[in-house]
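Title: Prediction job returns without error message
Component: structure pipeline
Severity: low
Priority: P3
Assignee: unassigned

Description:
Job completed but the reporter wants confirmation the result is attached to the right record. Sequence as submitted:
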Amino acid sequence: MLDPIFAYRWFDGVPPGDLQQLAAAGVQRSYASNAALYCAGEQPRGVYGVLGGNFKIALSNREGQEATVTVIGAGGWLGEAALFEGAPYLANCTALRASQVLFLPRESFLAFCDRWPVIYRNLLQDASVKLKQACWMSLQNKLQSPEVRLAYRLQLLPELLAAEPGQEWISLTDRLSHELLAQMLGLSRPRLSQAMKVLELDGIVKGGHGHQSINRVRLAQYCKQAENG
């Protein structure tokens, strides 16, 4: 049985049997809390599918000040941008708690992509979506409310990106802490909690600690309404 990481949109159109072969080329690795998956300046060696736990991608300056860019949880993938660019990592990636990944070596992954060119198209679409979201969120940080900024960030969660087209409620395998979400959105923690409460009242988010769910349809409608002004 394939792990949910292969339900990610990179692999749309690839037969399960071939994905089993790709999975067999990978190596499972475990990381303790705060352990580095990779560091800024290192050369990429492959890509990482998150099997469990979550990883923080963050930039830091010479004084040691850190800014969290994003958090990738189970079902998400890491390292593809640097791999295809052929350039060193720009940020540090560390485990937020005990976590596991499937590491696919560069040679195996690229050879598989050459065999299934549809993956290149899927990767391009994925990169386009992420770029659009990043540009839009940058604009929202200046113009939109914290609730809208939070909604756009939730759309980038791996569980939502890998969801089936007709799937409405998405259960989160790992809930992002309000502290990390606040840091990513440039908000205070109390203001982030207020924004989350608004989305809960709108029926977009439900559940408590450890069992939170997001209504994918309502979230998309909320973001579309914000985009249309």
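Comment from assignee: result matches the submitted record. Residues 12 and 34 are 33 Å apart (CA to CA).
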